Structure formats: C-alpha cells, structure tokens
Amino acid sequence: MTTMPTTDLTEVAARLDADDPLAHLRDRFLLPPDVVYLDGNSLGPLPAAVPPVLTDVVTRQWGTDLIGSWNGNGWWEAPLRVGDAIGALIGAAPGQTVAGDSTSVQLHTALHAAASLRPDRALLVTDPDHFPTDRYVAAAVAERRGLEVLRVSPADLSGFLRTEGDRVAVVSYSPVDFRTGELYDMRGVTQDAHRAGALVLWDLCHAAGALPVELDALGVDLAVGCGYKFLSGGPGAPAYLYVAHRHHRDLRTPVPGWTGHADPFGLGRDYAPAPGIARARIGTPPILSLLALEAALTVYDGVDLAEVRAKSLSLTGFLLRCADELLTPLGFASVTPSDPGRRGSQVSLRHPHAHALTRALADRGVIADMRAPDLLRFGVNALYTTHRELLTAAWCLRDIAAEAAYDPNPRGRGPVT
Amino acid sequence: MTTMPTTDLTEVAARLDADDPLAHLRDRFLLPPDVVYLDGNSLGPLPAAVPPVLTDVVTRQWGTDLIGSWNGNGWWEAPLRVGDAIGALIGAAPGQTVAGDSTSVQLHTALHAAASLRPDRALLVTDPDHFPTDRYVAAAVAERRGLEVLRVSPADLSGFLRTEGDRVAVVSYSPVDFRTGELYDMRGVTQDAHRAGALVLWDLCHAAGALPVELDALGVDLAVGCGYKFLSGGPGAPAYLYVAHRHHRDLRTPVPGWTGHADPFGLGRDYAPAPGIARARIGTPPILSLLALEAALTVYDGVDLAEVRAKSLSLTGFLLRCADELLTPLGFASVTPSDPGRRGSQVSLRHPHAHALTRALADRGVIADMRAPDLLRFGVNALYTTHRELLTAAWCLRDIAAEAAYDPNPRGRGPVT
Questions:
Q1: What letters, b where the CB count within 10 A reaches 16 and e where it falls short, cover B120-143?
Q2: ipTM above 0.85?
Q3: What is the pTM (predicted TM-score) of this model?
Q4: How far is A8 from chain B (nearest CA, A)?
C-alpha cells in the first residue's frame, strides 16, 4: 500500500515536468504503459523509429534486394555512416568513428593501437574501479604487449603522472563511474595525460547520448562505447571506436579483417589497411543490429545535448532530493555526488538489500538495476524520463523498505552491462 | 531474346525437380518472384521464420519486457543456444560451439588459442588461396605471437608435414575453396595434422549447412564460420567458434570480455574464464542479429544433411553439364571439379568478362556473383534451388555471351563475403 505522497515533492515534480522543453521527445520511444523505466543506462528502450526501419531492412532490403543491398541499400557504408552519426553526439567530426563489434572488441583494438602508437612506453594506466571488461581487456593486451597495467584512481592520476608520466603509453578511463554515477573531469585527465606525452582512451558507454562529450575539442586520442545504453540502439547494439584523425596514418589494428582492407574486393594476398578510420573495420557487420542502431539514433534529431544535460541534472538532482527526504531515514545512502558538475546521468543508492529491493521494485513496475554487492542504480534519460516518474520510484522504494516487503535473499541476477 | 532451349536439358531438369525429396523446403524461404538466386553462398535469402520472430524480439522482448529479457526471454544464453544449434549442423555435440562476433574476430580467437595450446611450435600453416580475412588474421596473429606463416596448398600439405610437421602449431584451412568450389579432404588433412602433433582449424563459411561436416567424429580441434551464407542468418549474421571439449580447460582467448567470465555479474577485479566454451564469449552480443540467425536455423528442422548433400551434388552436376553443353563453346571454362567427391556447393566458371557478365545476368534476374579477376560463381542451396533455375541461368548466360549483350567495363563491385 502506497502512503500519501509528500505534497511538496509532488508539486516540484509537476512544475519541473510542465516546464520541460524536451517533454515532447518521449513520444519518440515506445515505452510500455504502467512502467517506470530507470534502466536505460543498461538497455535503452525501443525508439519508435526502429520497428518500421527494421521491417524494411528485413523484408525489402534482405528479402527482395538480397545481395544487391550491400551497394544498393548502403549496407557496405553503414559502419562508417553510423559511426559518423554517433560521432555527432560525442563531438567527433566525420571520418573518425566506426560502428561495429562489441565494446570489448573495440577496447582490444584501441589498446593495441595505443601500444603501437607509443612503442617506447611500458605502462597502461586504468581505473581500479573501471568496468570489468575494460580491466580484463587491458590486462590481456598488456600481457600480450609486454606492458604493465597500473590501476590509478582518477583522483590520484595527476600526481601519478607527474612522477611516472613519461613511462605511460595510455590512460584508459570512463568519464562516468558505472557504479556511483560520478562524472570525472574529462578535460583535466586528457590534459594531464597529454602533458605526460601519453595517449588517452575514453570508454563512453555511460556518457554518450547522456551529456555533451567533446572529443575533438578536448584533443582525445581514442574512445570506445556501446550502442545500447543511452543511445537506445537495441540489445547488444554494435559498439563504436573513435580514433583522432592525427593517428590514422599510424593506426595499426590487431584484427585486420577483410572489410578494413584498402581494396576489400581485390582479394589481395596481404593486408593493406584502408585510409582513415575505415581500417578499423573488421569483419562483416551485423546489419540488422547496425541498422536498428542507426534508426534509433534519429531520436536525437534536432536535439541539443546541452538541453539534454540540463534536464538530466534536473532529474538526478530531483531524485537525490527525493532520496534525501524519503529514503535516507530508512537506511539508504546516496553514493552519487550532489555536485552537478561531478554527476553523470544516474543516481546510485547504497543498501545492504540492494538486490532484493531491485526485484521488489520491478514487481511494482519500477525498473532499476543493481550492481554488486549493495548498489541500487537508477538511470535517467532526459529524452523520456519525467520527474514524476522519479518521485513514483522513490515512493515505491520507500514503501517497500518501510514495510520490509521483499525477499532478502532472492535468486538469480541480471546482466551487468 | 532467349533462343529455344536444348530439349534434353529441359527434360532432365524437370525430372530431377519432380523427384526432389527436398522440394517442399523451398517454402521455408521468402524468395522474390522472377529471380533466380544463386548467391546464397554469399548472402542466404530470407527464411520465412525470421520476420515474425524478429517482430516479437523487437516489439515484445525489447519494447515491453526491456532489460528483463536478458533472463526472461533467454537473451543471456543465446550465444550458447545458437552455438549448439549450429553445432548440430557441423557434427559438434552440445557445449563446444558459441555464436557471436564476426568470422574475423573468431579466427583471431581461434588462432591465438591454437598458439597458446602449442606454445613450443613456431609455424602456422595456411592455404595460399585461403579467403583474405583468414590470411590477414593469420599473418597478424603470427606476428604478434612470434610465429611464422607458411602457405602450403592442401595438395602439398601431406608431404610438407612429413618433413616439417613437428614445427607446426596449427593448420588453418577451409574445406571448400571459395573461388573454385573445390572440396578438400577434411579427414585426410585433419589426420595429417594430428599425426604431426599439430592442431587443425577449419573455416566452415562455405561448408556449414551445405554438406555434412563431422567435427567431433574427425577429431577437429577448432573451427569457425559465418552465419549468413548457407545458414541464411541474415546480412552479417553472427559467426561462430567451435573448440573441442578436450581443449576447453587450457583454452585462452585474446579478448577476455566480461561475458566470458566465470562470474560475469560478480564484477570481479580480475578475469577468471568461465568453464567450457562459454569462456570464448566476448562482449554483449548483437541480439537482434543473433536471434534472427536462430530463427533462420529452423529451416533445417527435420532435414537430413546427407539428403542436402545429395541434392547439392545433383544441382552442381547438372549445372556443370549445362555449362559444358551451352557455355564451353562460348569461351567459358569450369574450374570446379567434376568429381562429386571434390566439389562443394557451387560452380565457378572462368571468363575474362566475368564481372560484366555477372552484371548482365543480374539485369535479367539471375543473381550470381564474381570473384576477381575472372570467375563467375554460382552457389546452389539444396534447400531451395531447383535444377530448372540452373538451366534458366545457363540459358541466360549463353544468350548474353552469344549476343555480347553486356558492357565489358562495368563500374563498381559487390562485396566479397
């Protein structure tokens, strides 16, 4: 049973939603009714543009035009075309971003490429709290290349680089901590790395589409990210790789697949990389997933990412306020910075029964997720999330916790993505 | 203008089609009318089972069930489930095949794994006429691992291994030459490699689904293949990797993505590979493409691959006869073995204007493809191709060539896949 809401929060939510300049964008998504979806930072919901495009891709392009679609329907150029569409959301001028493969594969490419671009440097620096794949792939590439991985938290990076910087080949970080939602200083980290002569590689999985990212303006060297979180490209949507123009000439990739060849149809005996970012193409791309992602990206048509960022901060700020008023008294502790400048597009609350509470919320139509061992994670997406939904989620969680209406030892776990 | 057909071939085609026990399977595909599609060895046509499954995946699973689909709709297990479904077509018992990524990425995994399994051997043997990606990736892995690539044609392999076999880590071949359609002796090559203490890696792109492959029975070590040729899984459908059970314990992969972790949701600090073939999972798989492939594989439900092989040989044998009678007099030369035991599921004809002729055929609704510089390639798929279609293609090509009704210098090229 839901108790009466705190009147003040209700009014605040209503006012913020009424004044929301992006409210009309929610219609670009096919959200199920009666669900508060706060897991778009794990799997973005279905954009309305996707089903008709996918039907066309399957029935007309594949079914009728068949092999001719590689040229006739633009399949061949899709990895570069979709890459540029993503590039527009991360501050990358055209010709530097390619879509395809998974984030893990793109990380593998980026880290090997970085090692080749800085052959005289022995250290690979990464965040001790980086997403698992980033850590695992970094360790594997380092072992293969004879490098050493050092795990340095972003807060300690500047000091570390002052003493050890000339040994560092690449600094590999995410601008947003996937657990806490903390936003790091992309500009400062990039500048520190460059001052030390190191490259910087950003994993944008939790940033792209959620806030303005200015890769070119910051002088970033390499970046990767997935297509299925804020970009809402569908489950396991292809990832992407950004390599700054200035590195293209010397870019060496560890998996020289035929689609990255300078003359892919020439059947040449030896590999000769294509000019530009096209050399980072690997094998034949999964066209259905890739073109679904392309359709999904149209949700950003005409959208100003500065407005997205402003609304995202309004949403997370409001959720933090709800948590403070409704949940802190019940044993929840926010681990997300209250400083807007240090906050991504999520709020994470610590509670020893995070897993069970997430399950109980889902049973009531509030979809969040958890990260082991004790974080409830609420992702907001300014393109469709409302303040009212966040208040509903907070009420719901308060009621569940207050009534202890959950199984403290639930079975099973969801994926961590 | 099509001249009158050779009566005898017409009657033969009619009789063979009338006696075809697999004729009913054509209804499992949505083939466009008025098209003779002989490029299913590059991109398989659309199976009728795919559109409704994909609609369900997109609108219900993604759109409504959202993140819950990873468990609730079986997305998480899909790479292993689809891998096993492919395994059933290549003679692999369950638990040895994983679907995902591209063939190039899977080759990269397989070759690195082979190098780790034979750390004391310095040679990587591959076919000088292997598909480009196979050669490029072999060269890259060899360079990274300090190995030497030797290109030995299948005909010379046995002799080579007798003298140099104890230095060979892995022999990497395709059972079917993608240019000529020649079928190599999988059993003999595998036995020769094993006798020398080497591993064998088969690229099944042009074999899986077209003829019986018996990986387990032959004792093959590693195999890869794509999902979009004979398996008809859609453009760029995920590839697969087979690793024999006996190698799982020591299997090391070069891209240790989070989905291959023993406890993928535990967010562990270091990579610990999952037991079994699951450790060869990399990143989050492209679910739309993967589940389209899964639906496509149902075209094989209840189908005996021995019957597929028998019909395939009937088709290619008939096409060779048509070529002999109708096309050889016009300057075409078959490069596909007439010996059925040495023939895959395609016929390739040499002609100096192969590219132009392929274009002219397409203009008349006969879809074949070409491989540089001078091969016309006709793929047959016993699940839907008819003998009558092959005769139509041969007539059409004869008329085009006889009338020189083509532009000898056409522009553009199609993809080589």
A1: ebebbbbbebbbbbbbbbbbbbbe
A2: yes
A3: 0.96
A4: 32
